[in-house]
Amino acid sequence: MTLVIDTIPAAAPAAPPVSLPSLVGLDREKLGRALAAVGVAERDLRMRVNQLWHWIYLRGALDFDEMTNVSKHLRATLAQAYSLARPQIVVEQVSQDGTRKWLLRLPADTPGEKPHEVECVYIPESDRGTLCVSSQVGCTLNCSFCHTGTQRLVRNLSAAEIVAQVMVARDRLGDYPGRDRAIGPGLPTEGDRLVTNIVFMGMEVAPMLAISLHAVRDDLRDVLVPINKKYPLAQLLEACRTYPAASNAKRITFEYVMLKGVNDSPADARALVRLLEGIPAKINLIPFNPWPGTQYECSDWETIEKFSDIVFRAGYASPVRTPRGRDILAACGQLKSETEKLSARERLALRAMAAAAE
Questions:
Q1: What CA–CA distances, in Å, run from 88 to 95, 107, 182, 205?
Q2: Domains of the chain: which residue ranges?
Q3: Which residues belong to the active site?
Q4: Mind listing the pLDDT tens digit for each residue in 151-209?
């Protein structure tokens, strides 16, 4: 097994010695305000914004001195007022299958306050690379099978904090022109970009809708997804049936975690089909990913295949998601951004669970 764990990479961009506001993550309007604040004339703002945008987001500049088409005077002025700092990488982990996970420390909201931490995960395939970014610190749903749900919601992330996660991933992967690319198992071998897809789990952003379903009865979903007590299945599915963006071309994705002896019977599969009648839908079947202290086990592979076959024969796409990054707690439902380190015994138990689930 190849496993890199609890590693603080030496090549990560260092935070400036004096805490300066970072331009990383700002949109064009806010970059314009930042430039105006240091004296850039209004007639020059559009050109200067375009220059900063190019160097920050297309070239991944780590220092203002890299911006060769910006005057030395303006570079010096910017360096005195701002930084290009990213969130601090606390831990970088690389799974045996090439999945990478970063624990990132965000600047404190106010001076003296404890900084927040979030995780993002990069999942490579031969023809694409998917980055799963955090949109919140913690979670409100408290799903009993989900490690993330054991961490209380602290706050939503800003747009700049979400963009900064992408910047960190591209830094570490070398996904900018002129940067050394990362090496390792499973990295994309096709195309010019290593990050080609970005996933916002836990957030609705209009183009596609995904629903964490996981059960076909209210009594069980009340346990697995406690928000069901407030929005029971009938109310949830009525909202899905009237969702204005739903169509055969833009189906609603229903996520369904496969829990051994809990929600994985043929009767559950048939009930799922009846439940989703009339909704343009795709059902993602997710083998449960273990984490220390959980009461659940993953369904047997034969059981998952039978479940998938029943759903598929009813006319619904029912792909089984391949678990990635289980050995570093980077798979679906395993993320938790608290900095508490696992004990040696918990690490061994985690690796044993991951190996048994393969």
A1: 21, 8, 19, 27
A2: 22-81, 88-200, 210-322
A3: 119, 332
A4: 667 788 889 999 999 999 999 999 988 888 887 777 777 777 889 888 876 547 455 78
Q: In what order do the strands lie in the sheet with 100-105?
A: 4-7, 88-94, 100-105, 117-124, 129-133, 197-200
Q: Helix, strand or coil for residue 344? A: helix
Give 119's contacts (C-beta < 8 A, 6+ positions apart). 101, 102, 103, 104, 134, 330, 335, 336, 337
Contact status, residue 189 vs residue 126, Cβ threshold 8 Å = yes
The span from the CA of 61 to the CA of 59, in Å, is 6
Report the CATH fold assignment for 22-81: DNA polymerase; domain 1 (1.10.150)
- Superfamily (CATH) of domain 210-322: Aldolase class I (3.20.20.70)
Q: How far apart are CA 113 and CA 55, in angstroms?
A: 32
pTM listed for this prediction? 0.59
| H or E stretch covering 14 | none
131 membership: H or E segment, kind and range: strand 129-133
- Whether the CB-CB separation of 86 and 170 falls below 8 Å is answered with no
Other CB atoms within 10 A of residue 9 CB: 12
End-to-end CA distance of the chain: 13
Q: How far from 237 is each of 73, 170, 270, CA to CA, in Å?
A: 59, 38, 16
CB 222 within 8 A of CB 278: no
User: What tokens does 318 get?
Assistant: 């029912």
Give, to the nearest 10 degrees, the angle between helix 45-53 and helix 28-37.
Answer: 120
3-state secondary structure of 297: coil
